[in-house]
Specification:
Elements (H helix, E strand, L loop, with lengths): L2 H10 L3 H23 L2 H18 L9 H23 L11 H4 L2 H19 L3 H12 L4 H8 L3 H27 L1
């Protein structure tokens, strides 16, 4: 039995500290996924909190023979998709957030160049489908394996690999024009 499975059993027996340990183990990656999905810090924090609450409510349905992480991350992604859907209905835009402290260290030129790269990468990512964007972010930026991404999104591993392949191809096409502009 895995350590996570033992923790789940302890939670089901009423041990709140065991649930706290599960939260500590997964909160950092959960926030990274939530932030990649929603693009807004406060929404991501709310999503992670909601995700843990839903997981706690559904813990009796968890199969302890399976890994806890993918099961929990799937709950998180589903809740995130629901938030995105409600956002589309309200037609709101996420705020762009800065990184505190970095501006004091970097010069003006470096900040401008960094912002330009960030904008271009975000523009390129916006050219992808929602699934492609999420798969790329989870695999390339958050370093989840294709197996983990497949479990989180409840799709086959070959589908994840194909989605990555087609997304990378599209990103190369979109960024190639920018690279040509830069070399002029």
């Amino acid at each position: 039995m895995t350590a996570d499975a033992r923790l789940v059993e302890c939670v089901l027996e009423g041990d709140s500290h065991a649930f706290g340990e599960l939260v500590r183990r997964y909160e950092r990656r959960a926030f990274a996924i939530a932030y990649r999905l929603l693009g807004h810090r406060q929404d991501a924090e709310d999503l992670v909190q909601d995700g843990f609450m839903v997981a706690l409510d559904r813990l009796e349905r968890f199969d302890i023979r399976r890994p806890f992480g993918p099961w929990f991350f799937r709950i998180l992604v589903n809740l995130g998709y629901n938030m995105l859907d409600s956002r589309r209905v309200r037609a709101t835009e996420p705020l762009v957030e800065g990184v505190e402290g970095v501006e004091r260290v970097e010069g003006v030129v470096e900040r401008v160049e960094r912002e330009e790269v960030r904008v271009k990468v975000n523009e390129a990512l916006s050219e992808l489908t929602e699934r492609q964007r999420l798969v790329v972010q989870l695999h390339e930026l958050e370093d989840f394996s294709t197996r983990e991404v497949a479990e989180m999104l409840e799709i086959a591993e070959p589908t994840v690999r194909w989605t990555l392949h087609s997304a990378r191809k599209r990103l190369r096409e979109v960024l190639a024009d920018w690279k040509k502009e830069e070399s002029r």
